[in-house]
Design goal:
By secondary structure, the chain is α+β, with helices and mostly antiparallel strands. The chain contains four helices and 14 strands.
Length: 233
């Protein structure tokens, strides 16, 4: 009996860049330091009214952070922000482009105005199996204080070329160094469906209400129940 090959996402760079630019990694392998230091239970706040549990016991929060892959900044970049965010200049010592400007007319009326749109250059081509796309989002639950990447979806099964990432510089005026390997975007592959899910809106049935109540009560009564329930489907 033959097994179907496991769907694979491939990251490819130019031969001269391999071993030079920072490489993509599974998101679960690069949890931020503040999260690693956080205890599962903060005893200072533990009482009869408060369990003292921290978000380290919140599986939806953790699963979002661990979802997909992290595409890092290929090489170190310096961003200089001036004029109350209206001017952004970038510099780097790498021999390939790392940042370029976007025309402000492209985002006229955007809530981030007057901050100008910029673009991080990515030197990895991402390929997914037929029928799979990638959702590119800012790092989930760990935003950068310096920049905010704009989210997007790309059909990476057919678009086989490097994808660059628009962003807004969000920090106060100053000079900021973004080191090689700084998490840039979270890459979440997903299977496209030819037919979208139908939307059914209405009041819950008695059976649905019972299920909701049971799941909610188990979640608050038994530590770790959500993880077991979710994994069992």
């Amino acid at each position: 009996m033959f097994r179907q090959p496991k769907p694979t996402i491939a990251f490819r760079c130019a031969p001269e860049d391999l071993g030079v630019i920072a490489e993509p990694v599974p998101a679960k392998t690069v949890m931020p330091d503040w999260f690693k230091r956080l205890p599962p239970v903060d005893e200072r706040h533990r009482s009869t009214r408060d369990t003292g549990l921290t978000i380290k016991r919140c599986m939806p929060f953790i699963d979002a952070m661990a979802c997909g892959y992290v595409l890092p900044l290929a090489a170190t970049v310096r961003l200089e922000i001036r004029d109350d965010g209206r001017t952004v200049d970038a510099g780097w010592d790498f021999d390939k482009p790392m940042v370029s400007p976007h025309g402000t007319h492209q985002v006229e009326g955007h809530p981030r105005e007057p901050r100008p749109p910029c673009k991080f250059h990515n030197h990895w081509t991402i390929t997914t199996p037929p029928g799979w796309s990638c959702l590119f989002v800012p790092m989930l639950n760990r935003p950068s204080p310096v920049f905010e990447v704009v989210a997007g979806v790309v059909e990476t099964d057919t678009y086989r070329a490097p994808i660059n990432f628009p962003f807004f510089a969000m920090a106060k005026d100053g000079l900021y160094t973004l080191e090689r390997g700084t998490p840039l975007v979270q890459v979440i592959p997903f299977r496209r469906e030819t037919t979208a899910l139908d939307c059914d809106v209405g009041a819950e049935s008695p059976e649905e209400a019972q299920t909701r109540t049971r799941i909610f009560r188990n979640t608050i009564a038994a530590e770790g129940w959500y993880r077991r329930f979710a994994r069992q489907g």
